[in-house]
Amino acid sequence: MKQIGPLLTKQAWRKRVKRYLYVSQLELFKHFRNGLIYFSVGGIIVYLASSMPASLRQELVILFGLLLCGFGFAYAMLSYTRIVLSRMLIFFKQK
What we know:
Elements: H1 10-21, H2 25-49, H3 56-94
């Protein structure tokens, strides 16, 4: 068998991908929803911090809000990509 990485064969890699993608749609949607919540909370923090007086504390709060926003966006987009790939895999497996 041909090895792709130092420890994984091609079949082992395929099994891992299938195990990663064959998850219930409800579970995947929960991850997507959590990403949206993080993104929204980060946006709210940035919005509320803009009303604070200009100081180092305001900058740190805005930085935290932006980091939370970025993390939430990335988490939501990766979760959505996983939802789409899972649905495509299930669709093509049925045919």
